[in-house]
Amino acid sequence: MLIPLGFLLALLAAAVLPLAGVSCGADTHGLIRICYPGWGAVSGTPNITSPYVTSPDPATIVGPAATLPTGIRLFAALTTLVLLAGAASALVPNTYRRVAVGATATAVSLVLLVATAVLAAAHAGSVYVYVDASSWAWLGIGDGAGVSGGFWLALVLVVGTGVVVLSNISGLRSARADADLRMPGLDA
Length: 188
What we know:
By secondary structure, the chain is an alpha+beta fold. Helix content is about 60%, strand content about 10%.
């Protein structure tokens, strides 16, 4: 039951929290923050805020250029679908198949999650150039473009779920080995 729960929590973290974006300090000229939460990455629409610029509206200045291209949105949609498939693994009645679905969903979702966040951050950085930011903060700390907290939380949840999947695989192999070693007729 931990495997589907892990995928569901990873999906919620990736969907609601920012996956990638651009941040800037108050001492720079870059005053607009562009952020792509998971659902925003699927739709291509970023959250654009600016505590310092009120007129003209920052969304109208940067919005059209900040919209994610179709390729990145496809990665985001595939990531969502794979995380949903991992969560739906609870519906698979066969234990071996359920673990196989969990292992496959773990591996594929890790690749897609990283690709989606990195591509969205790179796109945010290319848009943000015209708001005067030049540094890259791939850990989500500091000025510039980078991946954000939602990415790291989703990544930790998927890796943790992968550890549970590997533990289940190990347990299933041990149980199978024990069953193979038992001699027929001695089970009483």
